[in-house]
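User: Hey, quick favor. My workstation is busy. Could you predict this chain's structure for me?
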Amino acid sequence: MLTVRKSLLQFVFSGSFMKRWNDKLRPVELVEVEKQAHKMMLAFVLYLLNSKDLQEEEQIELGEEVILKGIFDYFYRLIITDIKPPIYYKIKGNPAHFSELTSWVLEQLHPKIECLGESFWQKLVNYFKEQKEEGLSNQILEAAHLLASWWEFSLIRDLNAFDPEMAEIDASFKQQIQQYTFLQGVAELLAEEDNALKKVINLWGQLRFQKRWSQTPRIPETSVLGHLFIVACYAYFFSLVIGACPKRRQNNFFAGLFHDLPELLTRDIISPVKKSVPKISNLIREYEESELEKRIFSLLKDYPLVVERLKYFLGLDVGSEFTSTVILQEEVREVTLEQLEVNYNKDEFDPKDGELLKVCDNLAAFIEAYTAYRNGIMNEQLQVAIFRIKSQYQNYMLANKLHIGGLLSDFD
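Assistant: No problem, here it is.
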């Protein structure tokens, strides 16, 4: 039976510790989980732009491949940790050496992810063991990886002008990304001059600068951007466990990936502030929607499909990203989790879980607080958060298939 275990939740979170560009002068700490979030946001845009002419069944299959392979690449990266890219690519260029490295990585991964079942494991093994084809999903992910890494590099390039490697790295990025300009959207993102798509992607990247729990010391500190990727992964894993259809799984992943996008415009407003004054939550929501329209959606007017999907993931038609929805007769309809399970767990209804997403959001917050507490940061805010979330889900069963209270009880 598929399930989610403590070890898997912690493994996904461990990318919050993994430093990037660790041998360069950096204006802020850059960590792996943030880069992965930005990469998958880019992959989402490239996926939409490059699949619009496909049949619906092909679109869904491509979306599944993009998400799964993105997660697989992240897992691999977490295991090989501090191998510098030039060394990694040299290993990758030697089939025998790369096969040995991959076999070792798979040995390390199996105990952590076996709870997700044999099918998930075999897809991961096949992805790394078989020769990767130049299929559309691989091209999208490689382009997104290069663009996200280059965006990070742009932050440190001028600070490291004394470093002789910088010019070589910059030229290498440009050369590699040029190979993917046949993909719709890549040329715009590679352009020297500003354009709408580039501005929006830049805005999303800035979510790595916004720290969560900003008034509470923690180790590690986590950003809004990193939190988004963690929630997205949890949402996908939970979707597998409850037997969600492919479109529902994908919607849950991307909804998790973008659910805090308004915080780019309002910062991370903690729940007690939102609830301290009657109706302030509605006022914040109205302001968020206004700013989203002005600073993101209006810029993307030439990319209507991207806007449409973002609005659906953010629940703008129903008032909350944590509301479960389907699309019936081209209208967004609010439904319950039970209705999703019984009546609408089919690709044709474009289902999205709000309740599941809220559980994953809270679990990600729990992991942040729990990890900081275990790392020796003891304060009232963290203790209260740990106790509150454990109490809230003590007897909660997600879709009658996954006992969240039992999962949290493993965290002593």
